[in-house]
Amino acid sequence: MKRREFITLLSGAAATWPLAAGAQQPERIRRVGLLQTRAPDDPQATKNALKLKEELQKLGWIEGKNIRFDIRQAAGDIDRIDKFANELVALKPDAIVVGGSTAAMALPRKTTTVPIVFLAVEDPVAIGVAPNFARPGGNITGFMTFNPELAGKWLEILKEVAPRILRVAVVFNPKTTHY
Q1: pLDDT tens sequence for the chain (179 residues)
Q2: Can you give the residue ranges of every domain in the chain?
Q3: What is the C-alpha separation between 129 and 132, in angstroms, rounded?
Q4: In the chain, which residue ranges form alpha helices assigned H by DSSP?
Q5: 47-81: burial string, b at 16+ Cβ within 10 Å, e else
Q6: CB contact set of 150 (below 8 Å; sequence gap of 6+)
Q7: Are 168 and 155 in contact (CB under 8 A)?
Q8: What CATH architecture is 30-147?
Q9: CB-based contacts of 119: which residues, under 8 Å, 6+ apart?
Q10: Structure pTM?
């Protein structure tokens, strides 16, 4: 091979090298925080986290390849919820998924920039997480599980299916319930 042919070959390779190097750059790994009020050994907590991962995988988000999960489970401890909310925000995730009203209430005070998606929240307006249902605003949105306006309807249905019931008890934790 003559010197000119060698230089032409090298210059052609050098010109295409940045393109090849750019194509080989690994995809940025997105970071998702998951804050749950449940305990780490709670089967429902494990099931919820697994289901979230499975659904995201169906959309092409594969753990370890293009997404990373930072999971914190507070076991109902309000102090731990606050601590874990601070930890997750400090990690600068691309989004935070929150399970439970108490955890959902902790995060808006910590960040106004990280997108927050709440799941299993009683009433986001009543607990002060969102200003209204139609337009939650800011960096937070999600799904509520409890609608207080339906409580009377639940009692009517209960009376229809079990007409002999004379008493109904409501059990709740006043530290985590805001009604």
Answers
A1: 554 454 444 444 444 445 455 555 667 899 999 999 888 888 888 898 999 999 999 999 999 999 999 999 999 888 999 999 999 999 999 999 998 888 889 988 899 999 999 887 878 888 888 888 777 778 888 888 766 677 788 888 999 999 998 888 877 666 655 54
A2: 30-147
A3: 9
A4: 3-23, 43-58, 78-90, 101-106, 151-161
A5: ebbeebbeebeeeebeeeeebebebbbbebeeeeb
A6: none
A7: yes
A8: 3-Layer(aba) Sandwich (3.40)
A9: 48, 97, 98, 99, 142, 143
A10: 0.71
CB 58 within 8 A of CB 102: no
Can you read off the two tokens belonging to residue 178? 């805001």
Which pair of tokens denotes residue 107? 């995060």
Contact 100, 175 (CB under 8 A): no
DSSP 3-state of 4? helix
Q: Give the gyration radius of the chain's Cα atoms.
A: 25
Q: Give bridge partners of residue 122 from the DSSP assignment.
A: none
Phi and psi at residue 81, in whole multiples of 5°? -60, -45
Q: What is the pLDDT of residue 11?
A: 46
110: which 2 tokens?
């910590």
